[in-house]
Amino acid sequence: MEIFKIIEPKKAIVPIVISIPHSGTTIPKDIKINLKKRMRRYMDDTDWYVHNLYEFASSLGITVIRTKINRWVIDLNRDPESLLLYNDKRLITTIAPTTDFFGKKIYKSSNLEPDQTEINRRLANYYWPYYKELETLLQSRKREFGKVLLWDAHSIRHKVSTIQEEIFPDMILGNNDGATAHPKLINTALNVLKSGEFKINHNLPFKGGHITRYFGKPENDIHALQLEMNKILYMDDNEINYNTVRAKKVINVLEKTMESLIETIKTI
Questions:
Q1: Homologous superfamily in CATH for domain 4-265
Q2: Domain residue limits, the chain
Q3: Which of 66, 103, 244, 252 has the maximum number of C-beta atoms within 10 A of its C-beta?
Q4: CA-to-CA distance for 27 and 122, rounded, in angstroms?
């Protein structure tokens, strides 16, 4: 089973790697059979089609890695021990989720939910291989260029009341309050994202998940930024179908952002 896919650059490599850890739709049969029928059909917490938005990346020399495994099998953007990323009472799903973002049970019954032995198996088979490959890519770029930027790409429903009552802004750039990337990279990303028609928040309500915080070590010349975006920016209002007209506007600003980051990282 292919657990992740790497999209190699089509031109000269640049020191940027894009990670897409939540767009995977594969659930192994031995796990899928234990999920509620409606859950395994819709997989609501999936970052649907996010990889489509970054298809331009390889033409800029950027390497992309994306998972093929669904986040309900193992969540690549959570702490492996399910330590909390936030302490503001929001609902945060665990490393091997048993509920969706709305708190609804995923499994048919509680006795079918993964125990620690099963969680450890999933970590070994799906989680750590992704991290190992991502680490390999980052270290390779760092050796070649002396520095590297990791861009972790995500999306979320426009409203999730278990996280916050208000509708989410269009996009949220996260860097753990400036701890995971050089200020020049942060400012470049913010300025270009804001140059479009979208409302951009910074570290609110998302500061970057485990991937951003784990890999982002500016003092070691490895920088990391997370972009969370509202699904209705590139999907229909029902958040089920891809909308090419809406997506085109998103792709345009993402491409400009990457072009600017390629130039900025040369200067730090």
A1: Zn-dependent exopeptidases (3.40.630.40)
A2: 4-265
A3: 66
A4: 12
**Rounded Cα gap, residues 158 and 230, in angstroms:** 5
How do residues 205-255 score in pLDDT, each as one tens digit? 999 999 999 999 999 999 999 999 999 999 999 999 999 999 999 999 999
The b-or-e profile of 128-164 (16+ CB within 10 A means b, else e) is: eebbeebeebbeebeeebebbbbbbbbbbbbebeebe
| CA–CA–CA angle 78, 163, 194 (5° rounding) | 85
Give the DSSP per-residue string, the chain: ---EEEE--SSS--SEEEEE-S---B--HHHHTTB-HHHHHH-TTS-TTHHHHTTTGGGGT-EEEEE-B-TTT--TTS-TT---S--SS-----SS-SB-TTS-B-BSSGGGS--HHHHHHHIIIIIHHHHHHHHHHHHHHHHHHS-EEEEEEEEE-S--TTT-SSPPPSEEEESTTTTSS-HHHHHHHHHHHHTSSS-EEESSS----HHHHHH-BGGGTEEEEEEEEEGGGTB-TTSSSB-HHHHHHHHHHHHHHHHHHHHHHTT-
Residue 90 clears pLDDT 90, i.e. is over it: no
Bridge partner list, 150: 17, 224
- Does the predicted model carry a pTM greater than 0.85? yes
